[in-house]
Design a protein that fits this description.
α8 packs antiparallel against α9. The chain has 420 residues and is an all-alpha fold. The protein contains 22 helices and no strands. It folds into 2 domains: 76 residues, no CATH class; 337 residues, no CATH class.
Length: 420
């Protein structure tokens, strides 16, 4: 067996181990609490954001041994790390107090118009309006904002684990499908939009309205199902917000956010803007909370690891996708998304020549519909995971619990994409 074939097989095996690792993180955290000598190591391996970076390191080391160190470095240099860098920048910017303050004000204003108790209406809007805003401010930004608002308003309160998991499942699914009204906000759409000529008019008319229906149905269903629990959550909308936020500071933050979105394909530009943004926040630190740099770096490390591991999965994924008809492709794409990033999946599908329009629709619709099933299914998921994980029992989110919680909203999304 030549070294190239050996590396392909090893890459698939290491990727499978990484996926299994993500479902075993709670066991590592348990070891961290019971171990006398290696608690730090077990805690590190229990961090979901570290898993794919860790196994990517194993893969690169294997390439260096099976081939040459130069080949391993060449493989890394051949990968595109734009998405991890972009998610890091957009997560940090979107998680600042001025951005969060303005979105919370919008949600509170709309919530007062709705004929619902304030806590109930805020919950509904966090799971409906904010995910749909992801089509314009990008899905990672929407995930960050929604997760922070849910954390501060609900997860810090005494709500049941059942409500926490149900909320997480709907959040992940709605963020995944809520960004398809435009061709630039959802990572799996971004990967194929230019090649297939999908513009805003196409996305909104073919995907967007169906996704919006699913988002509203999912948010309304969970709100009605847990209405009594939500009504008992204390109303903190009128709590002290600290010093009044100047409109100019908010405007500058949105300019940085918009510029980062516009130059999302050019890391040399948006990372330069991001460094400028850090300087601005330091100059006006009185209007800032602690920046989410650690969370952003962990999420970027997770996604970068997924890029490195995903680069060695094309040999088995692409033939599978090429051999399916449109209906089977939809469900196959939705299932495969659970074990691999949906953006990587659609990218591999775009390499298949001669795909029909129906197959293209099935591939992308299935990928976004399944984007909430696991933490690795959609690029923004690790951001929400990092923000909310400390509020679950044992400081960890059960992958099985997330999967079960996401099944029903995923079924709603799939039904809308297939039947409407």
């Amino acid at each position: 067996m030549d070294s190239a074939r050996l590396i392909e097989y090893a890459g698939a095996a290491i990727f499978a181990l990484a996926v299994l690792h993500t479902f075993s993180t709670k066991k590592f955290l348990h070891l961290a609490h019971t171990s006398q000598n290696h608690a730090g190591l077990w805690h590190l391996l229990g961090e979901v954001e570290v898993v794919f970076g860790f196994w990517a390191f194993i893969l690169v080391g294997f390439i260096a041994v099976a081939a040459t160190p130069k080949a391993a470095i060449g493989y890394l240099e051949a990968q595109n790390f734009t998405e991890p860098l972009f998610v890091f920048a957009i997560l940090t910017i979107a998680g600042t107090r001025p951005i969060l303050h303005s979105v919370q004000a919008l949600v509170s204003w709309i919530g007062r118009v709705l004929p619902l108790q304030q806590s109930v209406s805020s919950y509904f809007l966090c799971l409906s309006l904010v995910p749909l805003l992801g089509s314009f401010i990008t899905e990672p930004a929407a995930m960050t904002l929604a997760a922070l608002m849910l954390r501060d308003r609900f997860y810090t309160q005494d709500i049941s684990p059942r409500l926490k998991y149900a909320t997480l499942g709907v959040l992940f699914v709605n963020i995944s499908i809520g960004g398809v009204l435009t061709p630039f906000a959802a990572p799996p759409v971004l990967m194929v939009a230019d090649k297939w000529g999908w513009n805003i008019a196409f996305m909104s008319s073919v995907f967007g309205w169906k996704a919006a229906c699913a988002v509203i149905v999912n948010a309304l269903a969970i709100t009605l199902a847990f209405r009594r629990d939500l009504a008992n959550v204390p109303d903190v909308s009128g709590a002290a917000q600290g010093e009044r936020m100047p409109l100019t500071v908010i405007a500058v933050h949105y300019l940085f956010l918009a510029a980062t979105v516009v130059f999302a394909h050019y890391p040399v530009v948006f990372m330069g803007l991001f460094l400028f943004f850090l300087g601005f926040t330091d100059a006006y630190k009185r209007y800032q909370d602690k920046l989410m740099l650690r969370e952003g770096l962990l999420v970027a490390f997770f996604l970068a690891g997924l890029v490195v591991l995903g680069g060695k999965q094309q040999w088995w994924l692409q033939p599978i996708l090429a051999g399916m008809d449109s209906t089977v492709l939809f469900f196959g794409s939705m299932g495969l998304t659970a074990i691999t990033d949906n953006a990587a999946l659609t990218y591999l599908g775009s390499l298949v020549e001669g795909m029909s329009d129906a197959a293209k629709y099935a591939l992308v619709a299935g990928a976004v519909a399944g984007g909430g099933l696991t933490v690795i299914a959609n690029a923004p998921n690790p951001a929400g995971f990092a923000i909310l994980k400390d509020y679950f029992e044992g400081e960890g989110i059960s992958p099985l619990g997330l999967l079960l919680a996401a099944l029903l909203p995923t079924a709603v999304a799939a039904s809308c994409f297939l039947l409407l």
